[in-house]
Amino acid sequence: MVVDDDRDLLWLLSRVLRKKGFHVQGFFSAPSVETVKKIDPAVLFLDVEIGGESGEVVCERIKHSTDLPKFPVILISSHAKERLRETAQRCGADGYLTKPFNLRGMAMLAKYYVSRPPAI
Predict the structure, then answer these.
(1) What's the structural domain count of the chain?
(2) Residues 12-38, mean pLDDT to the nearest whole number
(3) Residue 6 to residues 2, 76, 118, Cα–Cα distance (Å)
(4) Would you call 2 helix, strand, or coil by DSSP?
(5) Residue 53: which CATH number?
(6) Taking residues 60-77, what's their average pLDDT?
(7) How far apart are alpha carbons 26 and 11 in whole angstroms?
(8) Torsion angle of alpha carbons 49, 89, 111, 33, nearest 10°?
(9) % of the chain beyond a pLDDT of 70
């Protein structure tokens, strides 16, 4: 699952992950907990600045929901690396990528998280 309000970047990220064999659901705005539950993603790439609601708030909601299975959330942002790392720690994200990032590295990160045993 990929969430980014930049339509071009969302298209590119989705395309790269699909070419690596992933089934991708893309969203231009923050998905609800119900939507996330329906999709049941193996990993979520979540932009920090997605308009209306911040990715940090969405991450916190997902990580603290008792209705969702545990899955990795990776924040993506153009914020400075240190600031993004702090945001990821605050909201409970499993990792982060600072824009611009290597697309092949993003796909490798997705494979890494998908192959890990689920968090308990």
Answers:
(1) 1
(2) 92
(3) 11, 12, 30
(4) strand
(5) 3.40.50.2300
(6) 91
(7) 8
(8) -60
(9) 97
